[in-house]
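Milestone 3.1: sequence recovery, worked example.
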């Protein structure tokens, strides 16, 4: 695959207190729809989750919602999505969201958003996948987390040979171009690696 067709977006099931979070989710959804990029997300209709899903859908884009059965009422499952997957638990939800997407974005959110994001960063760190992961740092929301990463590095808990790899954008307009560039670079690297393996092991 040489292009980004779907993006997994982690974000809050609450709207947050700052209107810029609402505006960012709405704008990102519109851009994704206009760029023919589908949304993969947690399936809820509340908060930033609902805002971005409705924005994508209203602009004619494709929405894939994945929600655990026990959260359908609490997060007000968004039934206007073209695809709605009701799964048995959080683990299945996260795995399916990852598998259906070509890139991952974190908008502002709470503990659930943080947990999903950190899991993906861990997988990247351990070379379990090379999908680009991008933090949308609207209003400096993710700055404390980025400072914590720096603190971990300074104290020797993030080693140079196990660096945490991620992108950071402060502008919604930069998100898709940054992801496309990172995705293309990852695909080129994989192709080069495959060619080198073939040269070194011609019987493969």
């Amino acid at each position: 695959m040489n292009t980004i067709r779907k993006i997994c977006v982690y974000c809050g099931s609450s709207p947050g207190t700052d209107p810029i979070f609402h505006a960012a989710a709405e704008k990102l959804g519109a851009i994704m729809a206009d760029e023919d990029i589908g949304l993969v997300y947690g399936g809820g209709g509340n908060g930033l989750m609902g805002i971005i899903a409705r924005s994508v859908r209203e602009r004619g884009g494709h929405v894939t919602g994945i929600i655990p059965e026990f959260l359908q009422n609490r997060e007000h499952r968004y039934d206007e999505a073209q695809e709605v997957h009701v799964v048995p638990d959080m683990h299945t939800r996260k795995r399916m969201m990852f598998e259906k997407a070509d890139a991952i974005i974190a908008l502002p959110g709470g503990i659930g958003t943080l947990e999903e994001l950190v899991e993906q960063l861990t997988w990247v760190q351990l070379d379990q996948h090379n999908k680009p992961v991008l933090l949308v740092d609207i209003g400096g929301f993710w700055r404390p987390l980025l400072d914590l990463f720096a603190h971990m590095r300074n104290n020797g808990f993030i080693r140079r040979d196990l660096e945490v790899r991620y992108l950071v954008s402060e502008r919604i307009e930069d998100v898709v171009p940054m992801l496309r560039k990172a995705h293309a670079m990852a695909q080129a690297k994989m192709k080069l690696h495959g060619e080198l393996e073939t040269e070194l092991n011609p019987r493969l």
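The beta strands are 6-10, 38-41, 63-68, 83-87, 103-106, 133-136, 167-169. Residues 6-200 form a domain with the Rossmann fold fold (CATH 3.40.50.450).
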